[in-house]
What does this fold into?
Amino acid sequence: MPVTSKIEIKNASITKDSLSRLLKKICKERILIAPVRNDDLDDVNFLPVTNPAQICCDYDNTTTSPKEFFFPQYECMFTFSGTSHESIEAGDDSEEIVLFGLRACDVKAIELLDKFYERNFEDNYYLSKRQKSVIISVACPDLNDQCFCTATETGPLLQDGFDIQLLSSVNAYAVQIGSEKGLQLFEQYQYLFGPPLELDINKLLAQAKKQKAKFNLQKVYENLKQQNVDEDLWEDIGARCQSCGLCLFLCPTCSCYSVKDQKTPPGENRRSRQWDACYFSSITRMAGGNNPIRTNAEMIKRKYQHKLVQQIDEFGTSGCVGCGRCNLACVGNVNWLDNIIKIERAT
Amino acid sequence: MNLQYIPTTCPYCGAGCGFYLKVKDGELAGVAPSKTHPVSQGRLCVKGATAWESVIGADRIKEPLIKKNGKFTKAGWDETLDLVAEKFSKIKENYGPDSLGVWGSARCTNELNYLAQKLARAVFGTNNVDHCARTCHSPTVAGLVRSFGSGAMTNSIDEVKDAACIFAIGSNTPEAHPLIGWRVRTAKDKGAKLIVCDPRKIDTAKYADIHIQHYPGTDIALLNCLMNVIISEGLEDKQYIKTRTEGFEELKKVVAKYTPKYTAPIVGVDADLMVKAARLYAKTKPASTLYTLGITEHTVGTENVMSVANLAMLTGNVGVESGGVNPLRGQNNVQGACDMAALPNFYVGYQKVDNPAIQEKFEKAWAVKLSPKPGLTTTDQVIQAKEGKIKGLYIIGEDPLTSDPNITEVRESLEKLEFLVVHEIYMSPTAEMADVVLPGASFAEKTGSFTNSERRIQLINKAIEPIGNSRPDWQIVCDVATRMGYPFKYPGTAEVMDEIASLAPIYGGISHDRCRKVGLQWPCLDKNHPGTKYLHKGKFTRGLGKFHGIEHRPPAEVPDDEYPFILSTGRMRFHYNVGTMSRRTHLLDREFPFMFVEVSENDGQKLGIRDMDDCQVSTRRGQLKVKARVSDRVKEGVMWMPFHYVEAPANLLTNDAFCPIARTGEYKACAARLEKVS
It folds into this structure.
């Protein structure tokens, strides 16, 4: 079963009051995940809420990415006891969830993860959670100084790939429904929605596109593919990288994981998986100690190639969605955006 | 689905990053950074980013254990606590209070450490209380108190990024304190000058303006030489020396001998490079000095610290923003454990035990007679255990059988004890020797506070229930005290902190409520005090800063024909101390799963040893078979080993020679031999 089926976009509207009522209803019937500001520290992150009053509306984007609701940092795959088995059923703890407040970049990131986890073999740990989810995204009012979705063509408004997209207007949101799952949710609560606003979405899209892209993705792609980038750049980033993996843990499209078996006495064993990162040398190191990625510079170069060439070749969309989370996560002051601009200017 | 983000403080190094523990359906499920935390600012190191996994190993100690006929058997809490109280009471009765000792822990909270020292002083009746700062930064406390009057990092972590010059000596900042390493990188990116003094070509050395690769154990000679150049060229801050310090003439007299030409062969560094470094340092202000255990873990550790202080005062860099002398504390709460007086000579807040007025104050507060006699350090407790004078030890969250120098000797000492209680989260070689093992709850399972390197008191919050039948350590200490006839009654850790605030003037304004968001930096004298960003502004804590003229002395053991190398030990990015937590973290242990020794290319070639060859490292105390890592990282004639591997403990080799003032072991330099194993 595909995680989502696109439909021809349907337009509607919802007032801010009705949206609040909608979210209250959803809270009662399903699990609602929305941006929440922490009381002690000020970070905004996606968390389950039981009351729409907990939702934070004043945020650029969240500190962590919403990928963790489909691909958790740590997940038990199954448990077993004894030493011999013909087969073990995969665990499935997925629940009906509605994610509210995602930005366009994160929706695009999930779309890319969908493609990744459906290719070659179907990863049911991921797909089962995706199938039971509906996403209500909210278009960004503006770019901040670290994000760059207009360059990666992943926002701030989406043309497709969303379940339900909200666009803020004066006292209401323009609503677009773009998938079967979105339509089902819309139909269930149709009485809360109004007719389409007199808001020319095509005009908004055109305006969004006009926002200055911080780089030309095609040029970046070509320079990387044709190896036009001076090796010094990779050497410099490689020397700065401290292999903490945090930028990749924050990245909404990074999908590497490591599997671990652990004895959990008495008598039970657990297979789990957790986020992994290609900035650890042990991810490519072979049993004898040889490593095909010999230097930090090669490791870094491969990451840029993967996100900005390979994934474009394979999926037709950029592996970087321009959310900017990694830019301010580095103890070596590696700024992904600055480096992409350097790559763009290599020729 | 019940996913929560619980804000807390990282349990690893002394930087004190803030992060969220992810808790899913009651179990730890990850870590998320915090963009607003003053130390971490959206960043974390690899240990912080994986810290959630460190405490949920399947082999956590889940029940109290009592050794019967040489084997541990699970026991109930009542039975175990009764036994502990009875045994300690009996030893006290038979041999006197000073036959007992308590080891607090730099890994545990302020509240635990306060209660542990109160247990020793008010219940056991002895000042024999200390903790693992003895193996790291005790020379800092001893040295900086002598020079400045206060033994803590003078400035704040975030000030480092705005320094014009950074002078880092004996500090592998990016690996041991990655979030302070970030500030060094940021300062450099902003145009600061960077001088790194380290026997190894560590990451900061690679991008430094000057890297001085001196021999381990020659820091005083090097620092004296830099001061010699500064004074002979008239680059010292004369006004500052005149108005803020004393003892300059004594210093001047001693360093006169340490000309670059005289010093070069001692330190193994080109004379011109030292001249260049001295000029760059003296002319670029403010200069922030960073140091860690490369300075302290020597028989001259305290004097090393005072020499660092000399250099900073000579150039007027103490008491200024983005300057200062900044010992980077190695453990999450080593600053706090010192503040809380898990030290044999102080009450909480550095109030001396042999000061009668202070003694009276604490006797009144605790309603008990107290001993005026300073107690024994952990080093001396071990030595006296061997001599049969220490009979019972209560060790909290420490593994001296992996972390102390010359562990063969330590084992012999601990074997002599009548009763050993170890309070741990996982079994360790020391816990294996115990008569009773008490299962403590980890940082994720309790509340309390840690004080980071910049004196910032920050909270940890309970994210999950204690694993198995483990209990928060502060409660265990309360139970032992109560069963020994002195009830410790606290509703929670916040009330313990209230008692601390009432007794320690530097913590006077601290409460859990005030520390909830981003903590407070001591001195914080009252409830309205905003805390203190940097120390010694306008005036040193002791009045005038004091210069000390200090002569170079070589390490206790120097290379000879039989043991021709200098062996040094230390920490690396992917592991932490004795590995209890990092070795149980999948991604960390996968990255560096085995012990090794770093050797220079020239030495490797001479001995026919190639990278990844099996080899044997020997000292007068033992030998280890390990892999050789041959590179240009370490200086010729020097070898370096991490100490994170319990199966191949570097401290089997290190020298149990101690700083006579601070009693810290000489982990950083001993004589060793390297051989290829075929």
DSSP finds eleven helices and ten strands in chain A. The beta strands of chain A are 6-15, 31-37, 44-49, 74-81, 97-102, 133-138, 164-168, 172-179, 257-264, 268-275.
